[in-house]
Design a protein that fits this description.
Distance between the termini: 101 Å
Number of domains: 3
CATH topology of the largest domain: Immunoglobulin-like
Shape: elongated
Number of helices: 1
CATH superfamily of the largest domain: Immunoglobulins
Radius of gyration: 28 Å
CATH architecture of the largest domain: Sandwich
CATH class of the largest domain: Mainly Beta
Helix content: under 10%
Order of helices and strands: EEEEEEEEEEEEEHEEEEEEEEE
Length: 280
């Protein structure tokens, strides 16, 4: 006959399985540091895994972060950095208990960090109301951007000092590597003399690019335009008189009825006269 021998008992802790319902925000920057709110049921201050693979067990690209919970419904965590990504990527979230992992059904989307390299032109009149083209990377037309102009190059000063004027304007994405910004008047920053501002691009998720320096001057002042009326088909030769100083190239910037900007190459004949072709 079989003889059964019993060991001493060992306690096994049984925990109600957590579940996730939503993430806020859904998109974060690859530079990391965003505070993400996870909503769900049966949550606790446990560790979660963010994996680039659908399988938490086999993923080599995996991050572990700690949940901070005030109750069993809402928790927060800090999104880890994902350096080097060049397109939108997502990480699947797993709840982890000891060696076990349960998929939450939630995915955190990562957007590449935007960068700017060049700006054209790099200087212009203090009167503003003209465009500058900024070249860089990761300007996805599916997302909204805005241009930030500030007299300070320091982000902390921009964010915390209420006496520093930061001008924000909508940006027009031309293609994935260039974006168009409207330059505000220098007087908006309280300056009476030629000075400079720092320009950066901000994406809808709060991600900001590095900064480029733009200089205000008095060189580009317009006095007259001939002819002042043209046909809508375009092609008319325009003669513009003013004070243009020196430099090359020059462009004529036209604002259409729908608010978009069109740029054509201008030919400088003297310090006070240039010509360009009116677009259709």
């Amino acid at each position: 006959s079989t003889v059964w021998i019993s060991s001493n008992p060992i306690a096994l802790s049984v925990q109600t399985q957590p579940a996730g319902t939503s993430l806020t925000p859904l998109f974060v920057s690859a530079s990391g540091g965003s505070v993400v709110t996870l909503a769900g049921t049966n949550l606790s201050s446990m560790k979660i895994a963010l994996s680039a693979s659908m399988s938490n067990q086999t993923a080599s690209d995996k991050y572990e972060v700690q949940l901070s919970c005030k109750n069993r419904v809402f928790c927060t965590f800090v999104a880890p950095a994902r350096p080097g990504i060049e397109s939108i990527e997502f990480l699947t979230i797993f709840f982890t208990i000891a060696m076990n992992a349960v998929e939450s059904g939630l995915k955190l989307n990562y957007l590449p960090r935007i960068e700017v390299d060049l700006m054209s032109p790099i200087s212009g009149s203090r009167i503003g109301a003209y465009g500058v083209t900024i070249s860089g990377r990761y300007f996805d037309g599916a997302y909204s951007f805005k241009c930030l102009f500030s007299p300070s190059s320091d982000d902390d000063t921009m964010n915390n000092n209420t006496s520093v004027v930061v001008h924000s304007s909508s940006a027009v994405v031309l293609n994935p590597t260039s974006i168009l910004c409207d330059v505000p008047p220098a007087g908006m920053f309280g300056y009476l003399q030629a000075t400079h501002v720092f320009v950066s691009i901000e994406r809808f998720d709060g991600e900001r690019s590095n900064k480029l320096r733009f200089t205000y001057n008095d060189h580009l002042l317009l006095n007259s335009l001939t002819p002042s009326t043209v046909f809508e088909m375009g092609g008319s030769l325009l003669t513009i008189r003013g004070n243009f100083g020196e430099g090359d190239p020059f462009y004529c910037l036209f604002r259409t009825f729908n608010g978009s900007l069109v740029r054509t190459k201008a030919e400088l004949f003297s310090r006070d006269r240039l010509e360009c072709i009116c677009p259709a």
